[in-house]
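Worked example 2:
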Amino acid sequence: MKDRYNRTIDYMRISITDRCNYHCVYCNPDKFKFLSHNDILRYEEILDICRVAVKLGIVNFKVTGGEPTVRKGYLSFLRQLKQLEGVRQVTLTTNGLLLDARAMDELKDIGIDGINFSIDTLDSKKYASICGKDTLDTVLNNLLYGVSIGLNIKIN
């Protein structure tokens, strides 16, 4: 697919939820109203859109949120997306808090092409101040586990 400047567009960012398990000062989810469950697309509907997108040349998908790991069934969705005919790459952007060893092992099994950890600072006090939770150690341990099992990890 080409944009009006003749640039190739081959990726799509998919936000699977507006929810998050943090309350970051720059996002502050307490100040806006979340969508009801009935107002967001079901995974089956997102996959239908992705099938059409592949036919248009979109072959790379970036799954985000809010925080995608808070949505029930996200691992199954990633597996199904990764298995769609024509899909080249599926990556996940996350704060990393819920990516324990079990989840990371499953992501490896799925064949996830990359995980982008959003980490605002490596200072625990600043991290807690920004995110609303003192969970930096857990996030870093999850990240290091992902690296140890060979996942492609990036830090934003």
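Residues 35 and 115 are 26 Å apart (CA to CA). Residues 11-155 form a domain with the TIM Barrel fold (CATH 3.20.20.70).
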